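hey so u asked for the seq, here:
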Amino acid sequence: MAVRTYPVSSEGRSTIEDTSPYITVKQAQDILGVSKAKMSQLIRDGLLEARVSAFDKRYKMILRADVEKLAQQPRPEKSRRTD
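ran it, structure tokens below
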């Protein structure tokens, strides 16, 4: 079973097994390095599709390929106000 390591933050690294095509919203959040609010926005805006887990209705699952594709896209720079 291959394990890929994704950097998440200065606190450490997150390891996520590569065997499943789906990952949890929390795992996707760690891969993308975004807050819970930003993750909710990505789902709400349709950039990621979350599905209820068939095994545990408390969890939402996202296709790993969609998350990896989004992670490869360059992030837009934040516009700074110059007054």
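The chain has a mean pLDDT of 81. The two ends are 54 Å apart (CA to CA).
lmk if thats what u needed
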